[in-house]
Design brief:
By secondary structure, the protein is mainly α. It is built from eleven helices and seven strands. The radius of gyration is 23 Å and the shape is globular.
Length: about 270
């Protein structure tokens, strides 16, 4: 009869730590290799424009891509980084879903409506995603001119991203994904000087009136109105001057990454 070994909490903790240390060691080695390649590729014409001259961002994309089975060049084509947030193009998300055993297919596609469907490995349940004109309008994406100039590809990119996140959430965990608009409340900010002396009398009245007249910018609407990656990057650099680090800034960065994916997806 086999004796039952007593549970050794200290030994179990040691084993977990050893696994963690080994993963950290592997990650450090991968980081060194990724950065070495990134320093080279970001100086060449073969590098995607968004990573040009940005070896650190390129290395981050290569590291994440390696974990999902991409080679370095494939990772640079699959990922993007804006303001420290990592995102992935819709077509690449579909490739990841297929690589983990999911089946995906396009059901219908027109300028008015696109539908994609798919199944998880070992599961016959079909998940279906549709982006039609009504849904685009409800989400407020119709303000983006690409939904007028390239409606089919924009709807296709939305379907691909949403379906991939449904079928392969584990593989795509931590990456920017398309989200329902209700999950992104409007972020507004206004710049107010804090170092000016306190005004008195008429000066105080004029200062109060001037403060009321300061425009409040709807940064989310401005982000969604951009039509190119360069335009979006310039806007986010401007927005950074209006925000302190925190939840609102992180939220705006997430929205910007989602929109960048839409813009690039429509240009594909």
């Amino acid at each position: 009869m086999t004796e039952i070994q007593p549970y050794n909490q200290a030994q179990q903790g040691s084993t977990l730590m050893q696994k963690g240390v080994e993963k950290l060691r592997q990650h450090a080695e991968l980081k060194a290799m990724a950065f070495d390649y990134a320093e080279f590729i970001t100086k060449t014409g073969a590098c995607p424009a968004i990573f040009k001259g940005k070896p650190a961002d390129a290395a981050a994309a290569i590291i994440r891509g390696t974990a999902l089975g991409f080679d370095p060049d494939g990772a640079l084509e699959a990922f993007f980084v804006i303001q420290g947030k990592t995102g992935m193009y819709a077509r690449a998300m579909i490739a990841v879903a297929e690589n983990v055993g999911c089946r995906v297919w396009e059901v219908e596609a027109s300028d008015e409506s696109v539908t994609w469907a798919g199944t998880r490995p070992g599961d016959n349940k079909v998940e279906t995603v549709t982006w039609d004109t009504k849904r685009v309008q409800l989400a407020g994406y119709d303000k983006n001119t690409k939904y007028k100039t390239n409606p089919l590809e924009m709807r296709r990119a939305k379907c691909q991203t949403e379906l991939a996140r449904i079928l392969a959430p584990g593989a795509l965990m931590g990456l920017v994904s398309e989200a329902e608009p209700d999950a992104h409340p409007t972020v507004q900010a206004t710049a107010v000087r804090q170092d000016r002396p306190r005004e008195r009398g008429a000066d105080a009245v004029r200062a109060a009136l001037a403060k009321k007249q300061e425009p409040v910018r709807d940064w989310v609407s401005e982000v969604k109105a951009t039509t190119t990656g360069l335009e979006l990057n310039e806007l986010m650099n401007e927005a950074q001057n209006h925000f302190q680090e925190g939840a609102e800034w992180d939220e705006l960065c997430t929205i910007a990454n989602d929109h960048f994916n839409e813009v690039q997806g429509g240009a594909a």
